[in-house]
Amino acid sequence: MFNNINYGDHVSKSYENYATSSKVKDMSLADEGIRKIKWVQKHMPVLEHIKKEFERTKPFEGITIGSCLHLEPKTINLGLTLQAGGAEVAMTGCNPLSTHDDATAGGAALGLNMYGWREENEEEYYETINDVLDHKPDIIIDDGADMILVLHQERKELLKKVKGACEETTTGVHRLDAMHKDGALKIPLVAVNDAYTKYLFDNRYGTGQSTFDAIMGTTNMLIAGKTIVVCGYGWCGRGVATRASGLGGNVIVTEVDAIRALEAKMDGYRVMKVTEAVKYADLIITVTGNINVISGDDFKYMKDGCMLANSGHFNVEINRGDLEHQSIAVEQVRESIEQFTTKDGRKIYLLADGRLVNLAAERGQGHPAEIMDLSFAAQALSAKYILENDLEVGVIKAPDELDYEIAGLKLKAMNIEIDSLSIRQKEYLDDWQEGT
Ligand SMILES: NC(=O)c1ccc[n+]([C@@H]2O[C@H](COP(=O)([O-])OP(=O)(O)OC[C@H]3O[C@@H](n4cnc5c(N)ncnc54)[C@H](O)[C@@H]3O)[C@@H](O)[C@H]2O)c1
Ligand SMILES: O=c1[nH]cnc2c1ncn2[C@@H]1O[C@H](CO)[C@@H](O)[C@H]1O
Ligand SMILES: N[C@@H](CCS)C(=O)O
């Protein structure tokens, strides 16, 4: 069935190395998965460049890399990049709702060990994390730190083989920082999220666009003229607020950090306490990485028809239990939309079960390929960095050289040339004596 597909230059050309240990929903979806993988490859030039380099230099020969990332075509392309470098790759999802079953079938067909399917229950979610750990990885790539936690708590015997791990997202880095402070972290950790080429683009422009892509695709509703409350004005919040405003929404920001609140105000948004903001909201989007951002009485003051979406962390930012408690009926009214009827008769809509909407909604495609090109280039080079350096236990930022290499490659792929400092300019910048 698969043999007449032209795989292109950068993926395996046959299914001979089809990883039989994979657990995916349906291998008959592999053709479609491979078509989607090939599409994103066209839009991930930096990762494709790295893949070619890896094919030549084989930095991961004899190495096993296990990942816990959102499983969709761009992530599979990261897996193929690591595979091109000689690694045995085992992948599972980092969210029970974000896996694309065609992409995982495609990945398995192309020789990656794939574990996971969309709508896993909690037991299956952790079972597939353990399936990846069974491959005894030398390097781990995590998103949200669930796999690293399982490694430290339940699979301690594997710790000594792990040379290091990479973490994809802000909340994962916070969790791992906390773990290190408690003396519980036993491996070196590269906070890939903290690379400039990651958070400045992925968290901001990626989340900005993909959050609205998913919300609009899920609801088929207009943004223009609506009041949109953005909870959290970090990198994701800035991106979400910019796009909300660009689509014609009236944006209100809520924050707990005085500097970020001030920044939001001077960026032109209204800023107020969440208890006040919810009264005006047509749509609320949480992007804080925190728990109970919308909870308790907040639901009482919402207007009839208010929609709730989280694009931050797990399913804890919006307290679903509190909303259920105040409701007399919950009904699935459309794919990824639940309608809660409150005791006083209002309808409140929760998207994608309160999980990050840009990935967990049925229509969620995640960030654009050009954005994940940067994030996954940072992952691929960080994995190589771990292997080539004897890192100490702790959480470090990816080195600046790596960031500049990625930015340079991206600019080149975009046909953009920039200036460089002249010798005189360098001297001037280094000199403290030259004045007016
Ligand atoms: N959906 C995605 O694809 C995606 C992409 C990147 C990051 N993330 C996740 O999104 C979350 C935010 O990431 P970030 O990089 O913007 O983090 P960040 O640290 O830059 O920003 C978070 C902001 O939320 C604020 N905040 C915390 N608690 C709050 C509360 N109760 N009410 C209002 N504001 C509050 C903080 O003060 C901070 O300014 C994280 O969980 C991150 O892992 C999701
Ligand atoms: O399309 C995607 N594929 C894989 N990962 C993604 C995609 N979109 C966003 N993220 C990643 O998900 C993390 C939060 O869990 C973010 O940090 C982002 O890098
Ligand atoms: N993997 C987690 C981390 C997001 S911050 C999630 O999907 O919610």
What portion of residues is helical?
A: 40-55%
Helix- and strand-based class?
alpha/beta
The CATH homology group name of the largest domain: Adenosylhomocysteinase-like
Overall tally of structural domains? 2
* Basic shape: globular
Mean pLDDT across every amino acid position: 95
Which range does the strand content fall in?
Answer: 15-25%
Question: Termini distance?
Answer: 74 Å
Q: Which stretches are low in confidence, meaning pLDDT under 50 for 5 or more residues running?
A: 1-17
List bound small molecules: nicotinamide-adenine-dinucleotide, inosine, 2-amino-4-mercapto-butyric acid
User: Biggest sheet, in brief?
Assistant: 8 strands, mixed
Q: How large is the radius of gyration? A: 22 Å
